[in-house]
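Q: I'm writing a short methods note and want an example of a predicted protein-small molecule complex. Could you take the sequence and the SMILES for S-adenosylmethionine and return the bound structure as tokens? Please keep the output block clean; save any remarks for afterwards.
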Amino acid sequence: MSVSFFIKIKQPAAAWLIKKIQKYGPHKVRVSGRMYEISENVFNPRFYYTSEFMARHIIVSFQDSVLDIGTGSGIQAITAGQRASSVVAVDINPEAVSFARRNVKAHGLEDVISVIEGDLFSTLEPCTAFNVILFTPPYLEGRPDTVFDHALFDHDKALIRRFFKEAKTYLKPAGYVQMLYSSIADPEGTLKIAADLGWDHKLVVSQKTGTEHFLIYRLRPQE
Ligand SMILES: C[S@@+](CC[C@H](N)C(=O)[O-])C[C@H]1O[C@@H](n2cnc3c(N)ncnc32)[C@H](O)[C@@H]1O
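A: Understood, no commentary inside the block.
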């Protein structure tokens, strides 16, 4: 079956389901033993599998500085912040920023994690660089209409393209990007964009669920 078949059938179904869960699902959730508070407009880390799957595969050391792009509830920043020396968490959705800050505080990690509002790297201090950049991008085809839609839609992979154009500047030597993607969103096309922009990738782990395969990649600038 072709890539476009999956996009036409599976993506609208996924978007419909996610919006229902956002609206009617609980807004205080436990993931891997930690509590997170969210609102209807903040990506729920409990129900889509991706958040917990990514969090389980974060490997950072005590010296590492970490950037979490698209932090949502803050789950990846909070997971990395248990060990890393510092974490910066960014989200374009102001409501996500506010809940991520609240969750960081509830986990007592305000000294380690700063949460800032911004579009990708645009609000970072110039010349900041990180050992690890974490990124679970929106990957469904469509244009965001609401603040929450930023968690779902990346029209024509424009965000992915921009991310891989800009991310190199923010990586320390030997640093890497850890990105989660899905089989229903043409991962090959995404990896081709990254490769054309000078990135090598390695699949770290994949997991099949009822609807799709989730894939975690590490990407490094080509030498
Ligand atoms: C799929 S959610 C992942 C949330 C969280 N990282 C997790 O694992 O649960 C994607 C997140 O990226 C954010 N986002 C989308 N476009 C962004 C951009 N241009 N800059 C910063 N954050 C963005 C969304 O608001 C959303 O919170």
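A: Remarks, as requested: Strands lie at 28-31, 34-37, 65-69, 86-91, 113-117, 130-135, 171-182, 199-208, 213-221. Residues 204 and 217 are 5 Å apart (CA to CA).
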